[in-house]
Amino acid sequence: MGIALRVAIVVGLVAAALGVVFLVLSNTSTFQITSIDAVASDHVSADDIQKLANVEEGTTLLNVDTNAITQNLLKNPWVESVSVEREFPDKLKISVTERTVEAVVVMSSRSVAWYLGEGDVWLEPVNLDVSDNQSADDVALEKATSVGAILITGVPATVDPVAGSKATDDVITAVRSYLDGFSSDFASQIVSFTAPSEASISCVLASGVEISLGSPSDISSKEEVVQSLLAEYPDELTYINVRVPSSPSYRKIESSNVTAGTGATGSSETASTSSNASTQSTT
Fold first, then answer.
1. pLDDT at 112
2. Predicted confidence band at 135 (pLDDT cuts at 50, 70, 90)?
């Protein structure tokens, strides 16, 4: 017991001494931060990182509050995570990982769209510079395609994004339910959604086929019906209605002159008036 007690005392004294040394070094100019290596990302500049980090003059690598730096940077909607590294003797390296853009959402005014990021967080507005031969949806689709995101159009005026806030609107939640409920293979074919209400969701595939989905229920059954019809009528369908998956309907062009759709609206680049379209139901 006497030996154990002496060892414990020695260990305690050493720990106390090291604590004193650390405290002294933390509050002296030793290891004082003289430079910050802020690594810019696509939407967060090095200057933004330095300003948000707000590292006070005189801070050292030993007393810097890395948690405070992280929390400050997370105030930027684009920032998903933060890395803070000490590079002795005097440098602090700060880098960020951006949120992935998952959708471009066109507002009801049709002049402004918003980036919707990973975790359904509103990121920032996007101006739509529309030319004479383009619609707002066409421009928004180009922006969505360029960042590997989907397009969501037709949202009601009640959708009012605020940068950094989570999208809790019924129509956005409905679209999310479909994307999460579809298989990854089928979801990857979707280029746009139209979401005027939770009960009136529709989407357009890369092939140009428009699908009326309705409210987000029986999602796997709806996909199964759509996949079955696409397989039965390859390159012939322009529209499928699976609001009630047990009683779907579709429109089929009876012509060999069929081209891919535009993606945003699903309309064919070839005038459809020259083709015989049929609307059919299956049971």
1. 84
2. confident
Residues paired with 280 in a beta bridge: 250
Interatomic CA distance for residues 187 and 200, integer angstroms: 18
Decide: helix, strand or coil at residue 223: helix
Q: What pLDDT does 22 receive?
A: 46
* Residue 212 pLDDT > 90: yes
Question: Per the confidence metrics, is the pTM higher than 0.90?
Answer: no
Backbone angles phi, psi at 94, to 5 degrees: -125, 125
| Residue where the block lists tokens 């999208």 | 167
| Alpha-carbon separation of residue 89 from 23, 31, 54, 69, 105 (angstroms) | 17, 5, 20, 19, 47
- Residue 96 to residue 75: CA distance in whole angstroms: 12
Residue 263 contacts residue 237 (beta carbons within 8 Å): no
Summarised one tens digit per residue, pLDDT across range 60-97 is 999 999 999 999 999 999 999 999 999 999 999 999 99
Give 69-96 as a DSSP string: HHHHHTTSTTEEEEEEEEETTTEEEEEE
CB 85 within 8 A of CB 76: no
Distance of CA 217 to the CA centre of its chain: 23
DSSP string, 141-154: HHHHHHTT-EEEE-
Residues paired with 18 in a beta bridge: none
